[in-house]
Amino acid sequence: MEELIRLEDLSYTYHAGQENERPVLKHVDLSIRRGEFLAVLGANGSGKSTLAKHLNAILIPTGGRCIVHGIDTRATEELWRIRQQVGMVFQNPDNQMVAAVVEDDVAFGPENLGIPPDEIRSRVDAALRAVGMEDYRDFAPHRLSGGQKQRVAIAGALAMETDCIVFDEPTAMLDPRGHEEVMATVKQLHRERGITVVYITHFMEEAAEAERVIVLEKGSIALQGTPREVFTQVEQLKRMKLDVPMAAEMVYRLRQKGVKLPKDVLTEEELAEALCQSGWKM
Amino acid sequence: MLQDITLGQFFPGTSFLHRMDPRVKIGLLFLLIVLVFLCNTAPTYGLLGAFTLFLMLRSHVPMRMMLKSLRPLVWIILFTFLIHLCSHPGELIAQLGPFEITKEGLQQGIFISLRLVFLILLSSLLTFTTSPLKLTDAMERILSPGKKIGLPAHELAMMMTIALRFVPTLIEETDKIMKAQAARGSDFASGNILQRLKGFVPVLVPLFLSAFRRADELAMAMEARCYHGGEGRTQMKSLKAGRLDYMACSSMAVLTGLLLYLRFSMQ
Ligand SMILES: Nc1ncnc2c1ncn2[C@@H]1O[C@H](COP(=O)(O)OP(=O)(O)O)[C@@H](O)[C@H]1O
Ligand SMILES: [Mg+2]
Predict the structure, then answer these.
(1) Which domain holds residue B173?
(2) Does residue B215 sit in the same domain as residue B249?
(3) CA of A258 vs chain B CAs: smallest distance (Å)
(4) Which of A13, A48, B128, B153 lies in the 20 to 30 Å Cα band around B5?
(5) Structurally, how many domains does chain B consist of?
């Protein structure tokens, strides 16, 4: 599949060259394919947000390169093209809405790109429909739930006709219903529109929906693979202070006690199956 | 307790005043203000009064709400009236201690107070029938010729928009912090003014910290959505003056003509 974003030996240091400099990302190599659903896991402070901000040139690498659509993010004259192609949805739904009315907020991106008014109107309508928020076009943001606000933020990215949306812990501040709303919208956009999704989260269940998972540890990629490959690395995940899916944790402990079970168990159904087959008696 | 604070005094509706282009409304309001200052005789005041009343009735904003906008200024109006009442020499009608009340004074008092009343009513008609967002938008357009001499029209309008967007959020947050502090024993309701102000410090500090964090994150979110100032920017809802606005302008021209005639030829 076609490559959309490539990080080559990317490093990033906050306040580089000053006495309080702080290296955060260290020699990250990563390739993101068009249409992929990639989840990024990692403990607090492991550099997930810093990584995300490189994907649409909010941060420029202090070492190595970040290439989006064949454009090096250091090429400042192409900045708006990069940001148009890679949208962002942040953690706090309140702090990313600019306008006092939902549809004006969705229009903000296309307005910045200088799109003609009629086309903005049709893009905004289509984007609001795509996230199921068309009935709320005249609402003030403070009258929406957290999940609804995040869907409006997604519509804001769609209205710029992005190929890729980077989500930086979009559900961390939401209630369980908000989680479901956002996750369902993300999955639908990925499935139906082929949007490339980079989804940063610390919820295992959400990461398990992805096609590929990378785990960051202290600014480097520590693990990567399919959710199954990653989540069965129980010892490693525990060492990085990350949660482990219940079934994988159980298999891990039983295997430690000498019960013969296959290693790559991810879901609870698979666990039940494996337990039955092992002939293990309660 | 803070929830019911609303910004401005917009009263949604569909009257012709609501539907007019806000730029035209602002322009015509300025013209009306000039006309108010041109009034000097009973017929001119009568004409402008009738016109103001007509606008008030056709705006579909409840009369009670509009009259309420006079309330904060009632003392100033009264004071102005009294000053004029006793400070014009002329035909004496009454003597109150050292104050001489004259016919001219009475007339001038009524005229000047009416002037204030008209000014207040007409400007509140604008804010009653125009949403703050549209006002902001109109402000940007009206000020944009000033960009050439370095007037930051777009930036001012963007500031207003963001303020409008965040005031409800910050009010909600203040409410939350106040409740949290009250639960820890803070008392906002008793003591003298100094003690009360001191009680507010534990509310203001977290509020400001959070506002700065919000500003930081918002700036980043705006950049991520390709914001780079007003240059090359388009707007989905571009303002367009229509038939209604031309009609309003023509009516105003007629009113202006009539008023000028009354003022300068009927003396
Ligand atoms: N603006 C900044 N200036 C200095 N250090 C920062 C800044 N932003 C983040 N950091 C530091 O970089 C590290 C990684 O942060 P971040 O990328 O936000 O991690 P994560 O999103 O995985 O929690 C943290 O230790 C944090 O303290
Ligand atoms: Mg983060």
Answers:
(1) 152-224
(2) no
(3) 50
(4) B153
(5) 2
Does B11 lie in the same domain as B60?
A: yes
* pLDDT cut 90: percent of chain B above it: 43
Looking at the fold, whether B119 and B175 belong to one and the same domain comes out as no
Specify the DSSP element, H or E, that contains B95: strand B92-96
Q: Is residue B79 in some structural domain?
A: yes
Residues constituting chain A: 282
Would you place residue B4 in the very low, low, confident or very high pLDDT band (cuts 50, 70, 90)? very low
Identify the residue with better confidence: A267 or A103: A103
Mean pLDDT of all residues in chain A?
Answer: 92
Structure-model confidence comparison of residues A40 and B183, the more confident one: A40
A46 lines ligand 1 (CB under 6 A): yes
pLDDT at A117 over 70: yes
CA angle A260, A266, A269 (to 5 degrees): 85
> pLDDT-based confidence at B266, cuts 50/70/90?
low
A50 within ligand 1 shell (Cβ under 6 A): yes
Atom 18, ligand 1: residue with shortest CA distance: A49
**How far apart are the C-alpha atoms of A274 and A247, rounded to whole Å?**
10
Asked if the C-beta of B169 comes within 8 angstroms of chain A's C-beta atoms, the answer is: yes
Quick one: B112 and B171 in the same domain? no
Q: Are residues B58 and B100 in the same domain?
A: yes
- Measuring CA to CA, how many Å separate A168 from each of A133, A217, A242, B206, B221? 21, 17, 17, 25, 12
In this model, does residue B181 exceed pLDDT 90? no
B17 shares its domain with B67? yes
pLDDT of residue A281: 57
The answer to whether residue B141 sits within a structural domain is no
- In the three-class reduction of DSSP (H, G, I as helix; E, B as strand; rest coil), residue A98 is classed as coil
Same domain, B119 and B200: no
Would you say domain A3-244 falls under CATH 3.40.50.300? yes
Q: Which two tokens stand for residue A176?
A: 């369980």
Does residue B232 sit within a domain? no
Strands A22-33 and A3-14 come out as antiparallel
Tokens read off for A47: 């550099």
pLDDT of B169 strictly over 60: yes
pTM score, whole prediction = 0.84
Mutual angle of helices A146-158 and A176-193, in 10-degree steps: 20
The answer to whether B23 touches B153, Cβ cutoff 8 Å, is no
B162 located within any domain: yes
Nearest to B11 by CA among B131, B161, B118: B131
Write down the ipTM of this complex.
0.90
Mutational pocket test of ligand 1: of A14, A166, A203, the residue with most ligand atoms within 8 Å of the beta carbon: A14
